[in-house]
User: Fold this.
Amino acid sequence: MIRYAPLFAAVILSGCGGGKLADSFDTRQNAGPCPPVGALYDSSRYVDLDGGGELYTNIEFTGEVIDVRLFCRYVGDDPLEAEVEIDFAFGKGPAAQSDSHTYPYYIAVTRRSGRVLAKEYFNVQADFAGRPLAGKTEVIETIVIPRVDESISGTNFEVIVGFDLTDEQLEFNRAGKRFRMDAGQ
Assistant:
């Protein structure tokens, strides 16, 4: 009985606030599935070199999108509102001059045909504190995808995540090259 006490307390307290909780909680069924979400392969890795060539000793910082999750809500003809969570892994290489680095990334909303409808840019800060590896989960509160009417499902859209790379970094990734700071550990 003791282990159910928090549940009973939550049920009892939910009846106490004059109905505020019940009024704000939307119990209507989602109009359809959430859009698929993922990291674009070409921009899911980040390698920053010091300009001395593609050698391990010239690595300043690395990054990788490890996982992406999307949680959405839409009812009737309401816009689709989604929260995106991104798991990053970061590395500090031998050529790094700082214990922190800002990694630029983007979140894009596309049609299933690949046409980009919206793209926003963000930064995530990695603090290494003397360690060569760091990780972080970044949560973007709300992405709103307007829908023409209730016949438009979330499956008509895709949400794509990736690092905002320079032309050189993009070419490095497209050539299949990679450096991972955690290799061999």
